[in-house]
Automatic annotation (TrEMBL):
It is found in: Virion. Its main location: virion. Residues 176-461 form the Phage capsid-like C-terminal domain. Residues 475-499 are annotated as: Disordered. InterPro entries: Phage_capsid, Phage_capsid-like_C. Pfam families: Phage_capsid. It comes from Caballeronia pedi. This is Phage-like protein.
Length: 499
């Protein structure tokens, strides 16, 4: 059996320690009787001394060889944890495998860039997939998956089903990165704990509970009937159209890509937030769901002071407790101006009443705060009509959410659009994209939600805590106003839903 240099050194050091211990024993035995070493002891002691000298010399030679081997050693390259474990266990890795390690190279680009370039290629190609693939070839070094997806889409016929063709998995990865960028911009993306369910699956729901009673010995037990129903979340498609000039999408620099990315995120985020939180959004069968606050229990604000706020918050908590629901895992949703106003409330000593909250969120009465400028608010029209907003308390574990987690894109410049955030059928005024040298990008996402229990959401209306804070009106675009007299928020944004 062949021993390594380290094993030989350890063996000789053990022999040296044993010989040294025997020499100590010989001297101690002579000291106990008060005599010198006899002839046998002298011979043994001298033999051990010579043996230790020989061992020391041999150990020195072994250490010299060990140092030379270390200087001449080459590193063993392993490519996976299994190979590393084998090497540590003494398995020799073939030299051929060491010379040709597997190296994985990843693109050093920010998340969402590939999906943005996919959108730009579609817009520059005016919806032509073959031409878009040629455009994407220019980004092959940094984002080769864009070209791969566009070419695969021609043969496979779809870009949303990864099981259809293996290259289309790249599309799922691109949309996944874009969704990761979209989540922090939406109310839903900042809330954790939704009860996620698939589309078009019937889920049982209990409509009435059972009863129990005390039963005496030999008496019949009560039997009560349970009533069940079913809940199904069908497909609801949120669609938005972003219109850009042809010159903008022709640019390939990062600044133009950032503009396209921000516009796509703003289009989807603003629309989904309003549809999710606005209590005036009612369900339309086969088209879109109701907002989580539509028909939910609510109370009017008691007043603008900190004591009024505490009283209203206590009322909301009592509503949850009365419905036999825990507020563990609940979230607050409010306008950032309202959050700032609450954070600025102070007591008689000048100390903040609620130091954990600010316009970026925080913690309020032990629960996290999600802020969004898309929370509905009433703009002040005078001193007698102050600005107000709403505070929403939501329990996400009681909210059913169906989301395919992807975004589908298409582009065109041969269309005529109705530039309105509430388009109507048969509109008289349309804008020709071809005439105005524009390109339209349509983004679609399948998503649906529903309250599992009606008491899962409660909110305060008419809130103006901290005084008559001012929520400025959105800027008027081109001097136009909406049908209700309010300024147009974004005249270039077209958002709608389709079943």
């Amino acid at each position: 059996m062949k021993f390594t240099i380290q094993e030989q050194i350890a063996a000789f050091e053990a022999r040296r320690a044993s010989a040294n211990a025997r020499m100590v024993e010989i001297m101690e035995a002579a000291a106990e009787v008060g005599a010198t070493l006899d002839t046998a002891q002298q011979e043994e002691f001298d033999t051990l001394t010579d043996e230790i000298k020989a061992i020391d010399s041999h150990i020195g030679r072994l250490k010299t060889i060990e140092a030379q081997v270390i200087r001449a050693a080459s590193p063993i390259i392993v490519t996976d944890p299994a190979s590393a474990s084998a090497v540590r266990g003494g398995v020799v890795v073939p030299q051929q495998q060491q010379r040709n390690p597997v190296i994985t190279v990843q693109q050093n680009v920010a998340k969402g860039v590939a999906f943005t370039r996919y959108a730009i290629a579609l817009m520059r190609a005016k919806g032509d997939l073959m031409q878009a693939a040629e455009i994407a070839r220019g980004w092959h070094d940094s984002t080769p998956q864009v070209e791969l997806v566009l070419r695969a889409a021609v043969a496979a016929g779809t870009t949303t089903d990864p099981a259809w063709a293996a290259p289309l998995v790249d599309y799922t990865n691109m949309t996944g990165e874009f969704i990761e960028l979209l989540r922090p911009e939406t109310i839903m993306g900042q809330i954790q704990g939704f009860r996620r369910v698939p589309f078009n699956i019937k889920m049982p729901s209990q409509l009435s509970g059972s009863s129990a009673q005390w039963v005496g010995e030999g008496k019949p037990k009560p039997v009560s009937a349970l009533s069940f129903g079913t809940v199904t979340l069908g497909f609801s498609k949120a669609a938005g159209i972003v219109v850009m000039t042809d010159e903008l999408v022709r640019f390939s620099n990062p600044s133009a890509e950032a503009i396209v990315q921000r516009d796509m995120i703003a289009t989807i985020a603003q629309f989904l937030d309003v549809q999710f939180i606005d209590p005036t959004v009612a369900a339309v069968a086969g088209v879109h769901p109701a907002s989580i606050t539509n028909g939910a229990p609510n109370i009017p604000a008691s007043g603008p002071t900190a004591d009024d706020l505490r009283q209203d918050i206590g009322t909301l908590f009592a509503m949850f407790v009365q419905a036999n629901m825990s507020i563990r895992g609940a979230y607050w949703i409010m306008d950032p101006v309202m959050a700032l106003s609450i954070g600025m409330l102070s007591n008689a000593l000048g100390q903040a009443e609620f130091p954990g909250i600010n316009m970026n969120g925080g913690v309020f009465f032990g629960l996290p705060v999600v802020v969004s400028s898309n929370v509905p608010h009433h703009t002040s029209t005078g001193e007698s009509d102050p600005a107000t907003t709403m505070l929403v308390l939501v329990l996400p574990s009681e909210i059913l959410l169906a989301d395919d987690g992807g975004v589908t894109l298409d582009a065109s410049r041969e269309a005529s659009l109705q530039l309105d955030d509430a388009p109507t059928a048969g509109a008289a005024t349309l804008v020709s994209l071809w005439q105005n040298n524009m390109v339209a990008l349509r983004a679609e996402r399948f998503i649906n939600w529903q309250r599992r229990r009606n008491q899962a959401v409660a909110y305060i209306t008419g809130a103006r805590y901290g005084g008559n804070f001012i929520i400025p009106k959105p800027p008027v675009t081109d001097g136009e106003e909406g049908t209700n007299g309010e300024p147009v928020r974004d005249a270039g944004l077209v958002t709608t839903t389709r079943s």
